[in-house]
## 1
Amino acid sequence: MPHKGQFTQGFALLTNGQTTIEDIRQALSDADFEIAREGPTSGNWQFGGDALLIPFRPEVNGYLLVDVVDQPWPDSMGGKDTESDAMTLGAWSMGFFGPFAYPGGLERARQHSWAWAEGRQAGLNHHGFIRLKMSYILGAGDKDVKVLPKEYDPLEELMFLSQVTLALFETPGVLCYFNPSGEVLRDAAGFRAAWEACRAQKKVPLPLWVNVRFFNLTESLFLMDTVGNGQLDLQDMEALFPKSSHDPGDVDFYLRNITHYLQKLRRGLKSGECWRTPLTRKLRPRTSRRLNRIAPTIDAATTAYRPAFSAATPMMSSGKLPNIAFSRPPTVSPV
């Protein structure tokens, strides 16, 4: 299973397959990012295409590796018995597609693209991707370096990756942003609007990194969970709630605000801990273990659901927004 190891964070931008390393170098240079060095493809695209290395925290060997691949995102992560898929499976297991990427992540990101309705069709015709991977051990050799250095700060990493992503949106051929660890899709305008609104209010842009998934559990129960909290070294959470008494938008807002609060405290959720909901009753969040293994099985008609962030509305804490139309939550398949 992927986890923080050789790579501690991972973003992607889906492309039309025509983007070159020269295009990327130009976009980064225009945004005043330093390029430490350039490296050739590894020979197997799963492990790396043509690449650039950007200093992040060079004093602890912290670098961002940016590479470009002219292959579609391998959403199955090597689920078939071919030589190519075996290579993909090996690369996935070592975190080369992101430390918390899972098979089917792009498809789930489409189905749960609440803040960008067009995201349900995003990347269907993409032919390549730019990959951003953070590491503290690249090229270390025999040096005494740590996978997670002293004073490691995942928030600082995510903010830096987001700044690089903003620059890379100017690269020819880029279609959209995809966070495989948080199963988030955004176009350039939506990403930039969310980033700027959060900066203006001095808030953490969680919706750019962490998504919520929304399921029909039974005829009377909804289930909502977060995906991507692991990027911040926090547990994902889930909430079960009656359809008749809780608005999904309130639960979304509630789960994201708990993440926001725990990130500030730098701790996880404690067993048995109770939190007051946006409504008048109590809801007990729990850490999510089961839903990471579940892929939605149906697409949906529409239902009203307030997402935690819209490109048009600044957020408070993690943000609560006006009603817009979204896909009805998929039904959870058997484990």
## 2
Amino acid sequence: MPNGEILHVVQEDVMNGLRTMFSPDGKPEEAVIVNPNLDDGVLIGNEKLAAVPWIYSCIHDGQFLGMFRTDRRLKIHGVTFVDNRRGETLMHRYVDWMGVANQLGLEVSTRVPVDQAQYRKVLSECDELDKDDRGGGSP
């Protein structure tokens, strides 16, 4: 598959996969571009297996993770691997969802890493508190 055809297939894949949440901003044929920081005009890989780092310029005009549309303009980053090794084209699309969440003003919380013993201890303490709340614990 020639370079231009690989890029076209990736552009279609990105827009078809994301357009229910994020519509192209401007002309659809210009919405997905090869990431300029990684584009030196040479295909990453070959015609059988290639990686295409892309940026999708879009508008958040659909639901995303239960979040209502914001109509914000976003630049979604990702990479798609195009695999032609078995006679049919397979696409493996990876999206920087943390970047999307950040652009939408969402925060992602995490918990402090704990080992298994610490985790079980906290669960046990929570179970005891639940029993107390139901009147089943010791006075």
## 3
Amino acid sequence: MPDLAMSLSLHGLLLFVVACLQGFLIPAAASPRLALTAHSKAVIHAVALGLCAVSILSGAVVLGPTASRIALALLAGGAWLSLIGDVWASLQGPGAHLPLAAQAAGQPCDPAEQDYALPKASRRQASGKPRLSTLLVKVSAVLMMAGGLVLLYGAGWSLLMI
């Protein structure tokens, strides 16, 4: 278990450093607002990995070796895929991201996505294949959620009642 905590904390630290470096590239992106989103999300994911490590070290979560490897792959993999997908979208420019992030950046969303940032009556139908950056962001969210569920599986629920 300390190995899992160490791995998660090191991935969190490395992700934090990479996010800080990526922050210097925000002005050079085709969509600086999406680049800022990528930067912010990476910092949040780095902190989340650190908090997962703390929950393991504190004894609140106890996992076996297989579940530990699965949790690490899902959580760290999801955090890195999210950064890659978001940075890629910010470099591609208009039409490269999910509707809510694109709307916040003042950009059109991925044409393969139905623009759920708009009222249902004024949405256009999705068309074409989704961009890889959009798929990476969606897959990363599912991976991190699944990793969280693995950690919850090993959680000591009796600790909530103290």
## 4
Amino acid sequence: MSFMDRVRSQANQLAQQAQQGMAQGQAKLTELQVRRQADALLRDLGAAVYAAQRQGGPHEPIETAMAALDAHATQHGAVDTAPSGGRHRWPGAEDTAGTTGTGTTGTGTGTTGTPGTTDPSGTPGTGATAPDPGPA
């Protein structure tokens, strides 16, 4: 095999790898766009439910949003309805994200923390640390 044949062969391999990389990137982009569409549809459904239940709004927007979600799921597969990872949580939803750094133990002033946490003395909601009870 001549030098030029080897160069052409390597160039063809590189071109094929580049095309594969582009195809993978396009697939990821499409997946992201589909997920964002589903997120927007779920947000619309949530807004319609809130308006109907808390503001006396009509129920038709709920049915419209449900139909749009059904159509999206038919075209793209199941819609991910898992919680958003802590950004907008509802009471009672379990999540371990963000459980470190509450200010209830460790270093620092010991006077800051996350409301709703429990300090070592068992006092809920303050996020402050309990005084050291001394040697046990």
